[in-house]
Structure formats: C-alpha cells, structure tokens
Design brief:
This protein is α+β, with helices and mostly antiparallel strands. It has ten helices and seven strands. The strands form two sheets. Strands 5-3-2-1-7 form a five-stranded mixed β-sheet, sandwiched between helices. The chain is globular, with a radius of gyration of 19 Å. The mean pLDDT is 96.
Length: 241
C-alpha cells in the first residue's frame, strides 16, 4: 500500500511511555512518508483503520509527508488522520464518494506540535528511519501553545472527561514548571507532590481510575472548579513572568 513511499512508523503516547491501560488508552502512531498520499491510497488506509481500530484497542494515527516535515511549518500540515472520533465521518464519506476530494485542501493540526515533541523525547521507532532523523525539533513556544489549547479545550468539558483533565493539567504544570515531558500517569504522580494538599484526593482518584484500580466515578463539581481555577491562575502567572 505504501511500499517505497514509507519512511517510518513511530509510537508515542501512553504505550511508548509505559502507562498504557488496555481499558482506557489509545494506540498513538505517527507515519512518515516521502510524498503526498493519493486519494486511492488514503481510501485503502481508512478502510483498513476502520476494520482494525478497536480490535481490541482504538488507534489514533497521523500520516505526514517529507515536504510537510522539512522545513518545519506551523501549524503542522498532515496528509491523513484517523481516530475513533472520525469513524462516522469517514464511513459517510466512503459511502457518498466524497473521499475523492480528500486531496482538495491542505489540513493542519496544532496537536501535532505536542505529538512530535513527545515523540522526539519519549517515542519509539517501530519501523524505518529513526525518529530523530525524520522529525524536526519543535520550538518550545509552539509546544506550549499546543498543550495549553488542549488544556482549555478539556477545561470546557471537564465534567465529562475529568480523569484526562486532571492528569493532563498535572503534566502541563510539570512542563511549565520544569520542562518535564510526562505521561498522564507521571503527571499525576508529580501533581501529588507539587499541587496544594486540597487536590491530593482528586488527583489520587484520577490516577486510580486511569490505572484501572477503581471503577470510573464522577468528581465533585466544586473540586473540579477549584482545581481549574488553580491551574488557570498558575498558567496566567507563568505567562506574565
């Protein structure tokens, strides 16, 4: 399918960083290719991903070509992206034949600044050229922009995905404070030793749910609001320093 166009396949995220939870985690992948993928190859890839994602674990994957990677561009362009949130969209486009227009525009994704930074620091080369050669160094200000965009997006939905919101906020704090690039699990451990004592219980609860030690259960709205206010104030102070 990709044959000589393939440069490499790379793993990042929880599986690469040793905290994969089979009940909650995605398999996070990046694929580098030499040249832009044709719409016919993209259709084959999406068909394959629709069949293989969730069998048994969800896959999140982005394909980037060499021209998009070198030189570095912001926001980062990409050839193709799949995650479970796109399943229905792709199924519809395969049925109504709008897949034939997949190459009509260039898509970009600010999340890729974070994914590429994590890959270069904590990732694994699964196949092909080593990631240190394949991917550019991401300027730290764009990495910060990416993780803060993610924080504010999750903040707006914090009652619906509280575990991710809390643990992700902890690892963002770790990066802003000391340039640590942590997994969500590592971020939670950092938060237990760094955040005010009033947040030990919700961080512990988030870690226990994330690790599968206890069933998922709701967090108190008041503590989520207080936690978010603390993070908002920390971020604002960091930006003004």
């Amino acid at each position: 399918m990709l044959t000589t166009n393939l440069i490499g396949i790379y793993l990042h995220g929880s599986l690469a960083m040793g905290c994969f939870n089979p009940e909650r985690s995605d398999i996070d992948l990046l694929v580098a290719v030499q040249h832009t993928l044709s719409v016919f190859v993209k259709r084959q890839l999406i068909t394959l991903l629709l069949e293989s994602s969730q069998q048994p674990h969800p896959i999140e994957i982005s394909f980037l070509n060499n021209e998009q990677l070198n030189p570095y561009q912001h926001p980062v362009p990409f050839d193709l992206h799949y995650s479970e949130s796109w399943r229905e969209h792709y199924q519809t486009e395969l049925i109504n034949n709008t897949w034939q227009r997949w190459n009509d525009r260039q898509a970009t994704d600010t999340d890729l600044d974070a994914h590429l930074t994590i890959l270069r620091n904590r990732g694994i080369t699964l196949y092909g050229q080593e990631y240190q050669i394949t991917f550019p160094v991401i300027p730290s200000n764009y990495y910060v922009e990416s993780i803060l965009n993610d924080y504010y997006g999750e903040r707006a939905e914090k009652q619906h995905n509280s575990v991710y919101f809390i643990l992700n906020a902890c690892r963002i704090h770790a990066y802003l404070q000391a340039r640590h690039i942590y997994s969500k699990d590592e971020g939670g451990i950092y938060g237990l030793t760094t955040f005010p004592v009033q947040f030990i219980h919700p961080i512990t609860q988030a870690l226990d749910i994330y690790r599968g030690r206890i069933p998922a259960r709701p967090f108190e709205d008041a503590i989520l609001d207080t936690f978010a206010d603390y993070m908002d104030n920390y971020i604002q102070a960091w930006q003004q320093a």
